[in-house]
Amino acid sequence: MKSVPHKQLGKSEGGFSLSELMIAITIGLLILAGLTVLFTNTSKSRGEVDRVNRQVENGRYAIQVLMEDLKIAGYLAEFDPTNLPTPATMPDPCATAAADLRTAMPLHVQGYDNGNGVPTCLQDVRSGTDILVMRRASTCVAGDPAYPDCDPVTSGYPYFQASLCYPSMGATELASGNINNFYALDTNAGGLTLRKKDCTTTASLRRYLTHIYFVANNNNASDGIPTLKRAELANGQFTIVPLVEGIENLQLEYGLDTDASGAPTAGSPKAYTTDPGSFNACAASACVDNWRRVVTVKAHVLARNTEKTTGYSDTKTYTLGLNSIGANNTFGPFNDAYKRHVYQSSIRLNNPAGRREP
Questions:
Q1: Alpha-carbon dihedral sign for residues 74, 77, 83, 88
Q2: Are strands 227-233 and 247-256 parallel, antiparallel or unpaired?
Q3: Residue 57 pLDDT class (50, 70, 90 cuts)
Q4: Sign of CA dihedral 263, 267, 270, 271
Q5: Which of 20, 96, 244, 328 is most buried (CB neighbours < 10 A)?
Q6: Sequence ranges of the domains in the chain
Q7: Distance between CA 330 and CA 181 in Å, rounded?
Q8: What confidence tens digit (pLDDT) does each residue in 177-199 have?
Q9: What radius of gyration, in Å, describes the C-alpha atoms of the chain?
């Protein structure tokens, strides 16, 4: 039997030469480097977009918070404070005693231009920024099941009552003709005894609010993030609450109704000023009374990113309304790596403006 010869092996098996392999590796590395650069640039762009979006959201939210509170500044339920006497001097917004709250109640707003004379209950106030004090009663009735989202009556907190009792006989509450009997503002339940229309049921209790808005240098201690904050009157003291990060400046202009209350054009602003307390060379009680004439507020907010942008330098100048002499109120250039934007709004104070209308 013939043996079958083994098949002769063919030429060596195919593959890459060393030079081909090195070329392939080099091409692969170039592609990987390109993808890495693309990924890095995309990540930077996305991060920058996120920072800008947060800044826009923060700026708009800061304006919204101010608008919503100012729109109902001076709200006192059914009570009209028009005939209450104007305080002889500017009240201390940090005062917590019931008597001091009653004295200050006619001033629905009060302000400090460029932070001059910072109230003692505030901390870490950013230099050169405005401070706004706002006073009103809550729009919900404390402890009433019809207002499930309203906080219950809490001992030690200030509450406001408006009397609706006008008995046909007897000079009590509304029938007394004494405006001091028309309302109650107290931290003691014993002083909150006014009644509703039936002159039997206790009148509704509404939490009395004093809000002080200001810009702080830091959100948390020494973090360097400027923040819009609010001091809130609680149980005999003010508690500071952070509201919006990245708010670097707050500037305010107050619209004054210089007409007499009830005049044909009363209720609308006739002049704007950064400080009603010094408007038109006023003196003594007239300066305090100017704050009662505030019917609109122009709010200007400068918001900045909370993080720096690599390779960016802010050389812009920002205008936040007008200053005390009527010139553009400018800030910057800051020459740092933070991006900024100005937000502004004009807000009508519905309650004091409406009371002045004919």
A1: negative
A2: unpaired
A3: very high
A4: positive
A5: 244
A6: 48-356
A7: 48
A8: 999 999 999 999 999 999 999 99
A9: 32
